[in-house]
Amino acid sequence: MNAFWIQITFIFLALVSPYIQAIDSPQTVAIVGGTVVDLSGKSHIENAVVLVKGERITAVDSAANVEIPAEAKQVDARGKWLIPGLMNMHVHLGLVLPGKMKAELANETEA
Predict the structure, then answer these.
(1) Cβ neighbour number for residue 25 with a 10 Å cutoff
(2) In terms of C-beta density within 10 A (0-12 exposed, 13-18 middle, 19 or more buried), how is residue 49 classed?
């Protein structure tokens, strides 16, 4: 292999290595500042942190008790309530209404 192809290989590896690392290690997300409802009958948790690594919740507690990893993406949940297991089971996917209601729902977000 000549020097040109060796250089190209090193450049390629330098460019793709961050993406390979991202695939190997799931991203950690920290949902911070919200109020978590504890469905086991305990009191709710104000100013909570919910740590999610990949598809798994790894910690739920008050901000004072959870260390957020430096690499975690933080999602601000201040003023929001997090309720485990609550799902909207009444949805009209692709609903298009006529007239006034069409205009009211035109800019509706996923949330």
Answers:
(1) 11
(2) buried
